[in-house]
Amino acid sequence: MNIPTFTNSKVVDENGYFTPEWSNLMNTLISQVQLNLGNEGYVVPQQPATNIAELTDASKSTGAIVYNSTDNTMMGNIDGTWKTFTLT
User: Fold this and answer.
1) 76 occurs within a structural domain
2) Where are the alpha helices (DSSP H) in 1-88?
3) Which pLDDT does position 6 carry in this prediction?
4) What is the pLDDT, as a whole number, of residue 67?
């Protein structure tokens, strides 16, 4: 999910409508929520195996869950190591 960066600018114009900056921020945020948090469940980010192998910064990826689009598996980072979820 790509959450937009906070915009430190005027939120509404003199007519009470979102400014272009805030309109863009809200559109992006709502689109990402609709795309990733649907009625069918939370959509886990997809990455090819080569990208997952490069996600080695334990301080950033420990506890993360991704979908390995190369092998069609779910993976989680446990204490800095990517583990494949085995579901039966």
Assistant:
1) yes
2) 20-36, 49-54, 58-61
3) 83
4) 94
